[in-house]
């Protein structure tokens, strides 16, 4: 999980998830007040971890004959990716 570059306090999962979900809002450290913005690599990583596995499943890995089962499983894979994304997204302190 991402930490503040100034005071090394850890950002909460919920704070990072909300920032990622709502158009990459900057995160403000609760301890020291420094602002951190998501990096370009962090944006790409977040998108890749939430969308790419779902698309790979839809296009190449689906073992199901049922469209509804394929879509349901793909959506579950996408949701799991969204829930894991806050652990790998990178932020950088703004000066």
From TrEMBL:
Keywords, alphabetical: Membrane, Transmembrane, Transmembrane helix
Listed transmembrane segments: 44-62, 68-89
Entries under InterPro entries matching the protein: CxxC_20_CxxC (IPR026369)
Matches recorded under NCBIfam families: cxxc_20_cxxc (TIGR04104)
Name recorded for this polypeptide: Cxxc_20_cxxc protein
Source organism: Oceanobacillus arenosus
């Amino acid at each position: 999980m991402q930490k503040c570059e100034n005071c090394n306090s850890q950002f909460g999962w919920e704070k990072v998830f909300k920032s990622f979900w709502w158009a990459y809002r900057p995160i403000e450290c609760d301890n020291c007040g420094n602002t951190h913005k998501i990096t370009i690599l962090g944006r790409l990583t977040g998108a890749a971890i939430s969308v790419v596995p779902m698309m790979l499943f839809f296009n190449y890995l689906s073992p199901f004959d049922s469209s509804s089962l394929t879509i349901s499983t793909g959506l579950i894979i996408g949701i799991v990716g969204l829930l894991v994304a806050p652990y790998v997204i990178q932020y950088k302190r703004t000066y």
